[in-house]
Amino acid sequence: MRLTTKGRYAVTAMLDLAIHYDKGAVTLSDIAGRQGISLSYLEQLFARLRRKGLVKSTRGPGGGYRLATEPENIRVAEIVTAINENVDATRCGGEKNCDKEGRCLTHYLWEDLSDRIHDFLYGISLGDLVNQPKVQEVANRQDNIVTATIKPLTT
Hints:
This protein is mainly alpha-helical. It has two domains: about 1-85 and about 125-155, Winged helix-like DNA-binding domain superfamily/Winged helix DNA-binding domain (Arc Repressor Mutant, subunit A, Orthogonal Bundle); about 85-125, no CATH class. Helix content is about 50%, strand content about 5%. It contains seven helices and two strands; from the N terminus they run αααββαααα. It has helices spanning about 5-20, 30-35, 40-50, 75-80, 105-120, 125-130, 135-150, and strands at about 55-60, 65. A two-stranded antiparallel sheet has the order 1-2. Strand 1 and strand 2 form a beta hairpin.
């Protein structure tokens, strides 16, 4: 069992949106620059997140993406589920056929672990993460790096 890159990137990108929630729409290229995630990969993830109602998009100048609701209302487990990520520790992928035609000896152990991981991720909102001082520290560093690489135009 492991959370794939798809799940990690989706949570990271959504947390980036949550951190910049009060600043209006955020472009995927801004998220890609701050988080080091491919723009085309983000486009695929955000298509799924939009279909599941977790983000809203705005086209045109000043456009981009916003969270569909306040960060406190979006659970990490919802993000992982929205992009079709399955956090399942069982060998059978939840099919209950890990020992040929039935459950294996340790099926219930891994099934319980999967449930606990889901409950853990559901217990954490984007708002919880945004309010963590260490997350704010990293976000400030990323914003400062991006700001430092943008040179002002001189006339």
